[in-house]
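Record type: monomer structure entry
Structure origin: computed from sequence
Chain ID: A
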Amino acid sequence: MADEPKKIPNIRTLKTDAEIFMKEKQISQLDIARGAYRAGRDVPRTVPAQSFNYKIIIFAGLAVLIVGLAIFFAFRLFFPATPAPQSGAEKPTANFLPVDGTKEIIFSEANPGALLSALLEERVKNLRFDTAVYLPIKILKNTGEEKFLAAPDLARSLAWQAPAEFLGNLQPDFNLLAVYGQNSRDIAVILKIKNFPSALASLFNWEKTIWQDFKPFLQTEDIKNISQFAFADDLIKNNDARVLKNSQGKIILGYSIFNHQYVIISTSREALSTILDRLIALPPR
């Protein structure tokens, strides 16, 4: 008997599997397509994030900065800051001349008379002949703050009735001194000025009343009939000076201007001579 030809086995493919699956489930290709569409529609989609534009932030920041600077400088131009009024300094003025000692005096703003009392105490000390002591003055404010006096503050504290032109011509720096001579104990002051001709004219005007401002440092017997006295020219250490003599010919007050910058006022000719001698030997810088 002749052999029967062998049957070629069916090859399994994705298509055949799909056909068998559809036949078993009794669905059509349309049903599969519809299901695939629904599945794809329900899957959440990720939208790619837009790249952040940093250039916009940079340009905006620069614009704000430019506008802010413009407003600031315009405000400073039209509304300049008002400088705070200065009263006193953190450090005392350096010595204008060589001295033999320094004595700091502190008085309270609430008791301005204490300054005069302290100066009178220094004046009556019995120190050796030809001694000059520098007296930096410090004021204790009502706020508790301590400041060294400037020249205008000194004038106010001692109640000087000097011409306004003279007070306005003062530099802040000054030296207050106690000078001890052979025959006198004196208080002297060296004031630095801004303008020599103006200061000289103001001093001439002050001559009528200056003795009243220095009266606490003058002897009672020396100022009897003082209304009859008058200032006169003098020459001290080759420097022009103006001095006030009493009826006995004693010089009780005098002033000179050294190097057109420093007004020296003292209660004796001897003290003026001592101060001028030291200024000449070592002029202030």
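Annotation 1: The first strand starts at residue 101 and ends at 102.
Annotation 2: Residues 49 and 77 are 49 Å apart (CA to CA).
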